[in-house]
Amino acid sequence: EVDGVPLEAVVSTQSTGSEPQKKSFDNSRTSDEKRKKKREIEVKVAEYVDKLESGKCTRIKQITTNEQAEIYRYLLCKGKDAKKTIKHIATGRESLSELQSEMRHNPLKSPIVSGTSAGLSGLVSYGSSPSSSPEPEVKR
Q1: How far apart are CA 42 and CA 35, in angstroms?
Q2: To pair with 10 at 20 to 30 A between CA atoms, which of 30, 119, 128, 132?
Q3: In this predicted structure, which of 4-13, 54-63, 83-92 has the lowest mean pLDDT?
């Protein structure tokens, strides 16, 4: 048995080139494409942070570098013109609070590229923010 499928069925689908093998290949290709896209976005975000820290990009004064990088990531993942949107927010042509509200109500699906609901507190979020974690237990 392989992954709950009798071995004969696995061997016969591999030798005949039937549909299950094709679906597996398609899923693998889709997964690889998603992984590649995520990697490209993370590279762009890292480059963006470097530019922010060196003063080569427009800064939004009300938020931290990490929060701005999170906004940049969100906009890239949504297919929006991230640099233009950030420039509009920095100059007051678009609302930062509206974008942050959108990010809370429509978070990104993947943990690699999602923000936290507590104000987008980091570059990469894997769930709750550090401030909400319990205090360590002290043994006496």
Answers
A1: 11
A2: 30
A3: 4-13
Confidence (pLDDT) at 128: 37
CA atoms within 13 A on the CB side of 128: 5
SS3 label, residue 131: helix
Q: What is the DSSP string of 34-59?
A: HHHHHHHHHHHHHHHHHHHHTT-S--
Buried-exposed string 75-113: b where 16+ CB fall within 10 A, e elsewhere: bbbeeeebeebbebbbeeeeebeebbeebeeebbeeebb
**pTM of the entire predicted model:** 0.61
User: pLDDT (tens digit, 9 = 90+) per residue, 108-126?
Assistant: 886 554 343 334 444 444 3
2 forms beta bridges with 5
- Cα–Cα distance measured from residue 82 to residue 133, given in angstroms and rounded to the nearest whole number: 32
